[in-house]
Amino acid sequence: MVKKFGDFTAVKELDLTIHDGEFLVLLGPSGCGKTTTLRCISGLEIPTSGSIILDGVDVTDRRASQRDIAFVFQLYALYPHLTAYKNIAFPLKAQHVPKEEMDKEVDRVVKMLRIEHILDRKPKHLSGGDMQRVALGRALVRHPKVFLLDEPIGTLDAAFREEMRTELKALHVDINATSVYVTHDQEEAMSMGDRIAVMNAGVLQQIGEPHEVYANPVNLFVARFIGSPGMNLLACKPETGENGQLGLRMRGNNELLELPGTLQQLLKEKVERDHSLVLGVRPEDTTVHTAEQEHSLAAEVYVTEKMGSYHIVDLSYGEEIVRARTSAYVDMEIGQNVRMSFDMGRVRFFDSESGQSIMN
Amino acid sequence: MAQVRENKGARKAIVAVVLIIFTIIYMIPLFYIVNTSFRPWADIREYPPKLIYQPSVAAFIRIFTARAVYPPGQAPTEQELKDMSTIERIVYKETNERIVRTGDLPRRYLNSLIICVLSTMITILLGTTAAYGFSRFPVKGKDDWMFFILSTRMLPPVIVGIPVFLMFRNVGLNDSHLGLILLYVAFNVSFAVWVLKGFIDEIPREYEDAALVDGYSRFQAFRKIVLPQSVTGIAATAVFVFIFAWNEYAFAFMLTRNTAQTVPAWLPYQMGVLGFDWGAAAAGTTLFLIPPMVLTILLRNHLVRGISFGAVRK
């Protein structure tokens, strides 16, 4: 599917299959085309080319109202002139459901969401969380084929967001409906998604289970975007050392980093000699040593962020910054000279020109 | 602290006094008109005006009726006086007249109501749908269209008076209700489109998107979501449009004579009959004030209340 707005291509040749009952998260920075994708699925936008197939039926030319899809909007979009009850019942009214059945259906979702006490209120008298629940109720009330959620908890405050995250996930487990969830918050994506589809600049970058996307990003964008902080990326070049073993010449301060046999083998197979690479390593796979250490690189403590249960130590390595996640009991001084080492079983290599991973 | 509070109190008092003075200044002409309409015939021309007088409804009767003066020596007899209705007696006592037939006012008044109500309804209907279209759809050359619509208001309407008169004469719209309705719609629809577009622009699109996904057609979404949301704007626009049509004099004067003549076009004619009957003119004006006042009072909640977008957080 392709979607253009005038000359601007919002979504470029997206090919995405969403499984029945799956919770798929569309993740990407703002303006990456994730909301547009969602709106195309819903029928609120018509794709410029390509097709959208729902349950084996091509619905590309169908209007939103004919697709049997529920949409939860970022700003809830509750009808301000209607009470919570009427908001929830609104989709049933479109189908001319008899009053009795309507009451029963509304009652069902209201109980599920525990919002019995606010049904008479109009949206402006509801708290953010209650508005969110009413919006969900409106989506849940008519058993749609697909749930589309556009950053539904983005405007809530942090503590409440976590609560709603759990609630949403539990809800999905309960009703087992196919859901597509858009967010720019990678933590939210990691915690909620059965699979994550990472998008950037209208292009699908990678799709996979959260841990797969996290551990094995297919390119530099995903490596940087997923994880908080993202992956450390260090420029380097494979080089044969004095001992005849293949190592990495690090651009940071021109040291040679020794490699275990498996990685040597991999680089020999996949990379031409002298080809520039990017070494990717997660902060939690980076260890900081205050004493001399084998297979380590010299670095200097630049700044320490204390996160409570752990610290993030920013190390300056030549012109590059490497972030390491350390225990909360380690104290580092700014400017202190240290050594850093990587868990070589978990490092990733990327082609520095194309940005693609060479691990697959 | 006390000083600050005192200052605040003093400022409030000053504001209140100023507002009261302004209100009084604005109300004087209105008061004068209503007051005059209730004065007996003999009191109206008295100078200096009497402050206390016996109020009379004779002026209202005069504006509603056509009358003839009893010629000298033909005054009604005792018996005839006894048989007179209250209304006839009031007229006789004040101006020595007898009522010949119902006057022209009821007819003119009805004309004004028909023309203004219908033209307001049509204007609002066209204005709302056009504004919605301009607000929501990618209309080709939208800005040019909007400017074109606005440009119809850049010159005083009277400029096209003679061409309109000639055109109306050719197609037989002179002195017809339809003619004035069409004309007022044409004048007002540009105003309505601009004002309503502003109101509709303010309504977030998400509401309609939600309604579309919830299984409603575009038109249903417009009717069930956009219309209730823009009631305030529609009410305000309707009041302005109605008052414009209600007050319009120049075209009504030019294009109507009899069948479709409206109150503003007719009222000045009453000045000449039987000298200057200020009482009748004031009574007519008082009655003429009532419909816009009623409309404004009925819609005041909408006029005052801003649109509240409680459900969408910005």
Explain the layout of strands and helices.
The complex is a heterodimer of chains A (360) and B (314).
Chain A: E1 3-5, E2 8-11, E3 23-27, H1 34-42, E4 53-54, E5 57-58, E6 69-72, H2 84-94, H3 99-113, H4 128-140, E7 146-150, H5 158-175, E8 178-183, H6 186-192, E9 195-200, E10 203-208, H7 210-215, H8 220-225, E11 232-240, E12 246-250, E13 256-258, H9 261-270, E14 277-281, E15 286-289, E16 297-306, E17 310-317, E18 320-327, E19 337-342, E20 348-351
Helix pairs in contact in A: 2-3, 2-4, 3-4
Chain B: H1 2-37, H2 41-44, H3 58-64, E1 65-69, H4 78-83, H5 86-95, E2 97-102, H6 105-136, H7 142-151, H8 161-171, H9 177-202, H10 205-213, H11 218-229, H12 231-247, H13 250-255, H14 263-266, H15 278-298, H16 300-304
Antiparallel strand pairs in B: 1-2
Overall tally of domains of chain B = 3
- How many distinct helices of chain A? 9
Rg of chain B (CA only): 26 Å
Give the strand tally of chain A. 20
The CATH architecture of the largest domain in chain A can be named as: 3-Layer(aba) Sandwich
Total domain units of chain A: 2
Unreliable sequence segments of chain A: none
Q: Percent of residues of chain A in beta strands?
A: 25-35%
Going by CATH, the homologous superfamily of the largest domain in chain A would be: P-loop containing nucleotide triphosphate hydrolases
Q: Looking at the structure, what is the overall shape of chain A?
A: elongated
